[in-house]
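Help wanted!
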Amino acid sequence: MATDTAPPTPGQERFLAELLEAGLLLDCGVPGVYGHDAVFEDVRERLADRLSGEAAARGAQRLRFPPVLPRRQLESSGYLASFPHLAGTVYSFSGDERQAAQQSERAAEHQPWDEFQAMTELSLMPAACYPVYPAIAARGALGPDGVFVDAGGAWVFRHEPSLDPARRQIFHQHELVRIGAPDAVLQWREEWAQRGLELLRSLGLDAELDVANDPFFGRRGRMLAQNQRGERLKLEILVVIEGPEPTALASFNHHRDHFGGLYGITLADGTTAHTACLGFGHERIVLALLRTHGLLPDRWPAAVRAQLWR
Amino acid sequence: MATDTAPPTPGQERFLAELLEAGLLLDCGVPGVYGHDAVFEDVRERLADRLSGEAAARGAQRLRFPPVLPRRQLESSGYLASFPHLAGTVYSFSGDERQAAQQSERAAEHQPWDEFQAMTELSLMPAACYPVYPAIAARGALGPDGVFVDAGGAWVFRHEPSLDPARRQIFHQHELVRIGAPDAVLQWREEWAQRGLELLRSLGLDAELDVANDPFFGRRGRMLAQNQRGERLKLEILVVIEGPEPTALASFNHHRDHFGGLYGITLADGTTAHTACLGFGHERIVLALLRTHGLLPDRWPAAVRAQLWR
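Answered by r_m:
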């Protein structure tokens, strides 16, 4: 099933109710899809500025992409083999005026109207780093230092409806991407994992760095997850928001030559570039801060506020 | 046909090529879907700050929503009767492990795989004001002054692939929404149409305000368009970016009691609230500025820069 998500714990349900009651989140009627008020957004935007500022200070160039990805790129990426249950595709109307009228009538009665819809050339954005690789590949061979891209807090989609407020169907994933020589890329990933850990601890969060795996689909996925852990390709920063399990606030991913080979990104010497990316989940970090320091950011500890309001 | 869009003019094609060559836009491989570089985004973000600043100075409260809308809300809104050709819906995988493997194989070969996808509870966001109405309705009856919401530069989707760089499939629509008594709402719409015109002229754009209509679908749509014009329900600010036709940079829409009735938004006296919204197209305004003042914002006239970099 595509919606095979664990039910929320009583603590998660209570925290979601508190966030909605305080008006920080706005219920849209579908689990995992929420609006934000000005208080929530203020914290989130200051976090985004802080992350982009840290990246800019280390030479990152800013690129920004919309929340949709060409379907052809999704098809070529291998994402559907690993995460078929999470991907979203975009459909639109295909038909004549009579069919448009039928579609509208059915929809207004909340009856099925999918027979009038056809797959478009677009999918929802599965991960914010995906559009970066072809954009860099289009420039030709890399310079000697490679590239460091700040893709900002982009919207990404995961089809996993849940009543855990930390598990959204659509959320801001702040992606930083490094493309370059194998050693430089691996070192960058390690440095940023430590920097991310220090940053989140400086915000008063009880954060831990650990080896992790992606939520690969099915039986084959269990083997992929074991390999990923064995080769230490994914690290995560974990915080307990509403237990029992900790929540990943950030992940640090080493792709080796997967994306370099897929998009033909080459180093100055003609060999295939390696890549790594890291993603900070804006909403999860804001939720961890609200859970740890309370629902009123005005009253957070001065040391925490000094890290964001500066 | 859903993709019945006019072909671009030679001038539009040339302007698009210049924007891509300069790196301001990043080609994603699908018409009307582009990334932005830091120069483009800097102008866009300063424009967004300026618009939100003008709204905040007049008492707007900030709310922010994701680029997807519950499908049920789309179904109830009447959007599919008026714009079936523009709406996007979100599908995702439905099936077992064997089907997931088939889907992945088909997709990797760029063969059809839509048989494995089913409609979800979500659609793409058709207009950035849509989630505002139920969020305000959920608060109960309005106070005497009603509500003014700044929904920010939210992502909206229109399925109209085009090589005109000013016609995107996905773009930032900066929506301001007024909900209140009939007279107050109409007056707000008129004031903001003038304020928007002055703002865009202060940026050196040769902007005109005019009565307009939405791109309603089909034969019935022509009648809806005539009615909309006759009742002056939609105003637009128009600028020639790449002719021959001018492009709408902003629109100012009076809904009378449509959304108030749909979502049960009531005034203090129990009568149905009226609503109006206005949308500034971030990308179109940035494109108009780049076309008018050149592709290097650093060299724009000082009077223009002073309006945004202040």
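OP: Thanks! One thing I noticed: The longest helix of chain A spans residues 182-202.
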